[in-house]
């Protein structure tokens, strides 16, 4: 049975304790590496037995950790059981709330070996392994986001999550002392996992009810009125019951149109909150402004239901880049409409999707919320936070987007720094005249023989390399590892910022001074950005083509100059998105003596230096003009009369 179980490339990497790129390198370099059982290059799968045998022969098979050991044992002995149910049984057993009779002796033995202080961590790692395998990141609420939402809900005794997914919100509420926890989830496998996780986190005397079903169509908790209702519902899911639920007591503020499922979820949550109870829900930013939801938003504002709308930074969620808001509502106790808190935490935008600085974001959200909860108002910080009276929203659009109502931040312009920047720009502009070389008409275009770079590679005059496997990289502050040159760095002209996790990436080629590097993907007119490396030490990263020349046969600047020419752009194809994909091996260059190459290479190098200087002056000039404009418009600077 174990020989027939399949593993992905990522799981092969785990077996050997290396990065995914190392597996790609092995497949490319070792003809005896096991062949995939399918034809998918995007996610190939291999027979576990064959892979383990190959790794063992190569001395690369690492001792499996507890997660890997338990996962393997589950796969081998699962039979017809759903993996989600088995993982749920494991979580229950690790937390002492299950007998694990369904798991088999081998799994129970492995679990019994886990020290008590490591059981909770193992349970969570197995839970996340399951979702990694099932590619359902959208149903896993980040623990930090779940904690933030529960903190906004206060200290409720009873909590309902009508779209509980993997149970993150209820688990966080249980850990903070909630005693009555209820959840509903459309997927039965997810329901099992959520129930196990919540029961594991709850106090023994707490009541946990997590059931499967469609909350909007078949509400399992019709009579429940909770202290707090928290929800991270599916985004944009239009099959929410529009055709079947036209007459329903939950639509107290209006019947949502078909493309406004989130307004159905908001009203469902309000229906289940006790009088004065709290609702905290995550929603796409468009819910605050789309005209199709105007009537419902207007009714909520008039009734005093909306307490706060909090804009999270774009990229907060790992599975999507769309901007999102946290809505905080209060089930009505009367008809009074009070001020609404607006917070825009967009300044906390992460460097890449899902890598939020949750500590900073939490402070940016919770401090104004706590002040508002205590006093009903907050200090107005332009572009950041303010309270707005309901009448301020009751216009034609009823747009609750925080950025629309917050005062614009005052432009900070320092006259001394502007003057310093102006002098640097003047110096850069003064250096430009005379940098372009003088030329004369040659009388005719090239008539000499030419060769493709691919032919130069085959002749040994040029070495060609690309990084084809995945490179594990990070740009977190303080991260170790050497800097990696990526195709994005070349295309945008920015300094490398990503560092390699070399321990889990495998061998990466180090760039040398004199190497020519070209991005694989080129936007705009397709003209490549070929550069000659000036320092040794950077690592070859993704989407970069490396050409290492024999300096006695090929001049690097001569080669880079021809790659930057318009004719090189014709050597590539255009992708479906309109981006040019360049294969440098198809580019033709004239066959010249090395002395002539060096003479032309010197000119190409001078032109590239001129281009950089001109671009620097242009970019700084535009930035400086805008800063002057903002300063004059704000009145913080004025023209010097001298």
Structural write-up:
The chain is α/β, with parallel strands linked by helices. It has 4 domains: 53 residues; 68 residues, no CATH class; 262 residues, 3-Layer(aba) Sandwich (Rossmann fold), CATH 3.40.50.150; 142 residues, Alpha-Beta Complex (Adenine-n6-DNA-methyltransferase TaqI, Chain A, domain 2), CATH 3.90.220. It is 37% helix and 15% strand. The chain contains 20 helices and 24 strands. The strands form 7 sheets. The chain has a 9-stranded mixed sheet, with helices on both faces. Strands 13-21-17-19 form a 4-stranded antiparallel sheet. A 3-stranded antiparallel sheet has the order 18-23-22, with no helix packed on it. α5 packs parallel to α10. InterPro entries: DNA_methylase_A-5, DNA_methylase_N6_adenine_CS, Restrct_endonuc_typeI_TRD_sf, SAM-dependent_MTases_sf, Type-I_RE_MTase_Subunit.
The top level CATH class name of the largest domain: Alpha Beta
CATH topology of the largest domain: Rossmann fold
Shape, please? flat
Question: What profile does the largest beta sheet have?
Answer: 9 strands, mixed
Give the tally of structural domains: 4
Indicate the low-confidence ranges by residue numbers.
none
Q: What's the number of extended β-strand segments?
A: 24
Strand order of the largest sheet: 5-4-3-6-7-9-8-10-11
- How far do the termini sit from each other? 88 Å
Number of H- or I-type helical stretches: 20
- Mean pLDDT reading: 83
Helicity range: 25-40%
CA radius of gyration: 31 Å
Query: In what range is the share of β-strand residues?
Result: 15-25%
Report the CATH architecture of the largest domain: 3-Layer(aba) Sandwich
Structural class: alpha/beta
Organism: Haloechinothrix aidingensis
Protein name: N-6 DNA methylase
InterPro entries: DNA_methylase_A-5 (IPR003356), DNA_methylase_N6_adenine_CS (IPR002052), Restrct_endonuc_typeI_TRD_sf (IPR044946), SAM-dependent_MTases_sf (IPR029063), Type-I_RE_MTase_Subunit (IPR052916)
Pfam families: N6_Mtase
